[in-house]
Amino acid sequence: MGRADDTKAMLDALGTNSVALLALHMGNRDDFCAEAREVARQYKVDLGPNTDVFRLISTWSTKASCPQSLKNALSDLRVQKKETRRKRTAFLTRTRLYVSPGLQIRMKAAIRTITVKTRVKGYPPYGTIIADTTTIYNLWYPHFVFGKQADSRLKRLPLDVLDKCQLQLDIGPHESVLLKDDRGQLLAFVIRNFCPDRSLLDWATAEANKQIPLRRNIRKEDTGKLVLMGYSAGSRSKTAFDWVKNITKKTTEAEKLESDAAGSVLFALAWQLMKSQIPQEVIDDFTDFVKDLRIRRMDRGTQERNSKTLVDISRAEENHGTLRVAVGKEEFEFDNVELAPPSGVVGRNYSRTLSAQIRAMHRERHPHKWAVSWTMYRTPAATGSDFFLANLGIRIQQASNTAIGWQPACSHGTSLPDCRPDEDDPTFRQIGVAFVTSNRLAGAWKKYQAGLITREEAEKEVIEEMDEAMGPEGDHFDE
Q1: Residue 330: its pLDDT value, please?
Q2: For labeling, which of 339, 431, 442, 454 is most exposed (least CB within 10 Å)?
Q3: Complete DSSP assignment for 108-159
Q4: Rounded to an integer, what distance in angstroms lies between the CA atom of residue 121 and that of residue 149?
């Protein structure tokens, strides 16, 4: 047979090849191309090692001699791909995982800007624990006055009921605002309805809930839970830490990888929402930190196509990766996605109940200027656990699906939750993630790379520093 006859015979064989046709029906181009190459080999048709097989066969399929079954399968695949692109675009748009640059500018400009005074007497006072109501104060008073302290050497911190008259500003649970000084410098921000798609918000909340019971609590003596996600220390051959080893439940290596991958995609999605909505200077602050440190972003992933987390970050390169996301009945794959900064925390009802430092107004040390939290869920109509910019005398009333950005070096804190400190399963729920980083991350990494400390010692330093960053025990609030 001549070359044309060989090609026709190959196409006829593909038209009756159940494996090739099924691959097209399932939208799997790679499997179809692999089967086509095998059929071509059988019919002595040289496709060449660098040939785009799918494009070549698609071109051949326009000829009258191509079997109708193959034409139909290729046509159906094109329609399917077009519909997939439409759904993918709709998903990105409604979730705000992607927003065009022009729309980003308009969205950010639409957020109300409030100019606040910076030369004010801070409230609540530095080192003070605040209860939003008298009821909450009475729930916690016996604990802070008579309860056992984690460190008896530390003095008991003052507990007080919020005096709204001393606030410069009280931001309501539905208000989105940019707070700036009289020179136009950004001081903080609040964005409500941060994730506008309920299915994605529910997925993120459920994923955060799944991470918390699996992992070691940064503060074991406190109520609620706060767990570290991301890098700690790693191989000396790589300029990055290894993924934190803090899963305490009995699990297989595959299950650990699955959970780590899910954590990566949770923070990657949060990072995309941040990039599309929060002020650019905050994004630049985190980006510069990662660039200066030359550390990898959260790129823990799995190559398994049937992975429950449906995230593939195995091809991560230059801080970007491929994410596969399944929300509700929809599943999408996104290439070249910028991954989240290297570390963060996931928290549920976290309360520094024994040492009380995190609930008191305090300052933190981070290697970047900004910190950002995303409260995914909060018990409706609940009181307590509000956020305070204490140096400015501002309360931010908490609500579900709220992003808050603040400068950790300035005095801030969270009021007490509306539950007893000894409740193991309170009706009050507040769940979220935060982009915060151990201040010792860079130093521990450099020492580890130089062989001065072991991986375990580096990881211990990072976790201890994160612990301190979330409310330093060494600060006795003597100011």
Answers
A1: 78
A2: 454
A3: HHHSEEEE--SSS--SSPTT-EEESSHHHHHHHHHHHHHSPPSSTTSPPPPE
A4: 30
